[in-house]
């Protein structure tokens, strides 16, 4: 699939380093956030991470987070990923997740 045919993806993922011998994973998550920042994709870190952009770039960013966290010494990583796409309308890049949240907030405000 060429980049022009790439699906626009809105993803939510939770990367969990395992076997580190430490109760905190903050340093590992910070390293993943550095990777996301370099990717140029829109993201928001919370209990998990919302990430959006072309499917191939979103997948690569999650892959690169795995590489970086392994490089920090985590022998195992478990990651839960949910990815949504749609073809019934055009999504302006960087607005996929915000648009979903705004739609619900608009309904609640009525």
TrEMBL record:
Annotated ranges, domain Thiamine-binding protein: 11-91
CC annotations in GO: cytosol
Residues forming coiled coils: none
InterPro entries xref list: MTH1187/YkoF-like, Thiamine_BP, UPF0045_domain
Family: Belongs to the UPF0045 family.
Protein name: Thiamine-binding protein domain-containing protein
Source organism (scientific name): Lentinula guzmanii
Taxonomic lineage: Eukaryota, Fungi, Dikarya, Basidiomycota, Agaricomycotina
